[in-house]
Every structure is written in C-alpha cells, then in structure tokens.
Amino acid sequence: MAGITDGKFALKLIPHGFDTVTIGGYNVDGPTIAAGQKILERGRKEFDISEEDLISTLKNEVKIIKNKYPEVQVSANLRSTTPEPIINIINKVEKLDIIEMNCHCRQKELLEIGCGQSKLHDPKKLKKFIETIVDSKGKKPTNQKISVKIRANVEDIDTLKIAKTIEEAGADYLHIDAMNPGKSCADLKIIKKIARETEIFIIGNNSIVDVESGKKMIEAGASGISIGRAAIGGKLNFDITNII
Asked: Domain containing 20 — which CATH number?
C-alpha cells in the first residue's frame, strides 16, 4: 500500500504471524516518481523518494525489519516503466528477499505512462520485461525471488493468459488481487483456474478479512495469502496462523 507500508509499519504486523512482509509500492524511475508526485497532489498517499535517495532508503527500510526479525522475508513492490531500475535494486539491495514488479496499480497517472495494470495489455512486452529482470539474476550470486503482482478481471484482459505468461517468463511468484467486479468477495474461481493450469506459486489477495476467508483462498488453490486492507491499521483482528 503506497505511502503506508514501510519498515515501521511492517514491525507492527509481523507479531500477528506473518513470515513475509511487503514494503512499497515504490516508484523507482523518473516517470513513476513524477506520476507519484501528481498522485500526492490530489490527496492520495504515496512514497515520495528521489532517484538519488532510493537505494539508501530501501536498504534502511529492510534494515529496520531485519534488525528485529532476521528470519522474516522482505519483499519490495516496485513500479517502473523499464526493467533497468529494478535490476539496479537487485544488484544493490542484497538483503531484499523478494523483488515484486507492480503490474497492479490502476491510478490514472501510472496508467498514462504504461505502468501498473496497463502492462497487462501487452503480454509479449510484459514477458520480455519480466525475462530481462529474471535473466539479470544470473549475472550475480543471489537468492532473491521474483514476484509479479497483478489484478484479476481487468477489462479486456485474459487473466489466465497473463498468469501463464508470468510463469513462462520465469517469475517465482504470482501475487494476484482476485478482484471480483461488483462483488464484495474475491473471485475464487480465477484462483482455481490458474492453480489448475499452472504450477507457479500463487499468493492470493483480496477480501481476506478473517480466518474463514483466508482458508477459502487456500482451498481454491493459492499457496499463500497476502492481507492488505484488513491490516491497514497496523493490526489484525484474527490469527493468520490458523489459516495455513
């Protein structure tokens, strides 16, 4: 959650049973940073970090978490128009466990520059984007994993095709917001379909507000879950260790 989920926020949530926390989304190149500033101007929360300060900021946020919880994995959700800034973070923020490409945000300022969920409209370009980042890991010893976060049921987008594209490109995780337009519950059918037709590790997200909804996501085929809005206050009203 941009402008909210940083190292200090993560420290509040880890005691509830999380083994992985995601910081970000962070804007990591000139166009996305400019877009983020426009989003801030209209009143939405954003992280406003310059390109010059980005690496040191990420290192510090990871350090805040790892100093207290060294066993917890840290993921960073990154918005970029090109792969190179993300590769730079892979190379320079070595204690970051998971690099997550943001193909999920739908703020108009990000869509206008070809970022966020707009990346889903060109599967070939998306695949090349992911492959470039995955291939860069071969040039240095690293245990970092690659995740791609998407939103399901985007208009004119075949979610299953996108999931297969992400798997074929070599990503380790598919983090999917199982948005169910017009309904207040997650689209578990799309999770089932993706789980049945791919072998990628699925992190299911959307409408997980209690143990029951979390279990339904796992039963649908997700290998793990993520919780956003239910944790926005820095706490949970349920024990996630009862889900998995």
From this structure: 3.20.20.70
| Global confidence as pTM | 0.96
In the sheet with 20-27, reading across from the earlier edge strand, the strands are: 20-27, 73-79, 98-103, 145-151, 173-177, 201-205, 224-225
Residue among 110, 239, 230, 109 nearest 101 (CA):
110
Report the Cα 169 to chain-centroid distance in Å: 17
In a domain, 1, yes or no: no
- Residue 2 domain-assigned (yes or no): no
Taking Cα atoms as reference points, which of 74, 68, 34 lies closest to residue 51? Answer: 34
What is the b/e burial string over 193-205, where b = at least 16 CB atoms within 10 angstroms of the residue's CB? bbbeebebbbbbb
pLDDT digits (tens, 9 = 90+) for 66-110: 999 999 999 999 999 999 999 999 999 999 999 999 999 999 999
Can you count the helices (H) and strands (E) in the chain?
9, 7
182 prior amide bond cis, ω within 30: no
Is 45 contained in some domain? yes
Q: Domain range holding 166?
A: 7-242
Number of domains in the chain: 1
Residue holding tokens 């492959």?
A: 131
Per-residue pLDDT tens digits for 140-175: 556 899 999 999 999 999 999 999 999 999 999 999
Is the per-residue pLDDT at 210 higher than 70?
Answer: yes
Helix, strand, or coil here: 173? Answer: strand
Residue 28 lies in a domain: yes
pLDDT at residue 138, as a whole number:
65
